[in-house]
Amino acid sequence: MTPMRIAYLDCFAGISGDMFLGALLDAGLDPAILHEAVTALNLNATLKIERVDRSGISSTKVHVYEGLSLAESNTADPAHRHENEEADHSHQHHPKTQHQHKTGHPHTHEREHTHGRSLAVIRDLITAASLPPAVKQTAIHTFELLGASEAKIHNVPIEKIHFHEVGAVDAIVDIVASAAGIHALAIDKWFSSPINVGGGTVDCAHGRFPVPAPATADLLRGLPTYSAHIEKELVTPTGAALLRALAPTFGPQPAMRVEHIGYGAGTRNPKDFPNVLRLSIGEADNSTHAAPSPEHFLNKHHPHDSETVTVLETALDDLSPQILAYVSETALAQGALDVMLTPVIMKKGRPGTLLTILCNPSDSPALQQLILRETSTLGLRIRQDTRVCADRHHTIVTTPYGDIRVKIGTLNGEQCNIAPEFEDCRAAATKHNVPLKLVQQTAIAAYLK
């Protein structure tokens, strides 16, 4: 049985997009993967990668530049970057850095409104890029998570949200490059420590708020967070959204044989506080556990094979199908594991719909609020269930219609299911004007060969 490849994020100094990119690179990711992803966006942006010291810890810092060639960005002086987010971003030859973890001047989340991009614009930009389908899907999902939080805070539909901080070039690059790095590493399962959000206050476009800022706080809803050591903002909306997209298991580092360790640097360098994100990559280590008995494989509800999930459920007989579809899409964007709409007959013979949302327990509070706010129900049922899942991983097969991801399910080390990713197949079928089922069959055949 192939060992599970896992990764653990130590968020003792928070997390931001540039810190995550630095940690990926420091842990051994080929920089060409990030450079190629940035180039594919056609945003006239480049990355500068450098070694820096953070309270004695050697780490990798990533800067995003606009209007420079790769060669020019490699020679640009990081000392001249905009440390103050209120600086004039129309200067195209200054590097762009994540709005968090700055040194020097006090920072603000407010940006020029020329940087505002709608979710639809960002989605189209990513879709048009020459990137693998899996990378596009992760990047778009991350922006949808951001959009859902912003929409909730401002009480407007998600498609009307215009991103300012996270709609700027640097944040788009951070998210898309991170998505490329995530898929290049081919991690089977992500884990994370609780998240240090920092402390103090932060100046946003709509006033001064205690840390974490509103969008960040919403994205972190239900996740284990704490405030310690430093009175600065340590988690950005981009960092929080990437964590949501990764959907890690939170807690202490699991038993693992660590192969690579990377440190991604934030911009600040406070005294006696290493402002870094640590990433450990290796293989899950089960050698300390006793060998399983035969009953282990017969009993599918053995605690080591199951996990707890939360089920949210309500029946509706007075709600527009359009709103039901919107709620379903939003729930998935906010991290729901699955959403089901079942026709039911309710009291007085009324036809209705049973809305069932399956989610991780940590995501339950946010999804409860979504249901109560967006639907006509006055209450919902909540229960904890256990589920048993086959181990799964992806591989990429090459077909006449392009590269297609194939999901492989294994049970006790034996292959039990093969399924081409639907979105990859649909995109290929549309591009080549062939039947969808032909692409699916071709992908399975390529894998079996």
Automatic annotation (TrEMBL):
Name the residue ranges with Basic residues bias.
91-106
The record's InterPro entries line, in alphabetical order, gives: Ni_insertion (IPR002822)
Domain of life of the source? Bacteria
The protein's matches in Pfam families, at most eight in alphabetical order, are given as: Ni_insertion (PF01969)
The UniProt annotation puts the region (Disordered) at 75-115
Gene3D superfamilies according to UniProt: mk0293 like domain (3.10.20.300), Transcriptional regulatory protein pf0864 domain like (3.30.70.1380)
Give me the stretches of Basic and acidic residues compositional bias.
78-90
List keywords of the entry alphabetically. Lyase, Nickel
User: NCBIfam families in the record, alphabetically?
Assistant: nickel pincer cofactor biosynthesis protein LarC
Recorded protein name is Putative nickel insertion protein
Query: What species was this sequence derived from?
Result: Tunturiibacter lichenicola
Show the taxonomic lineage: Bacteria, Pseudomonadati, Acidobacteriota, Terriglobia, Terriglobales
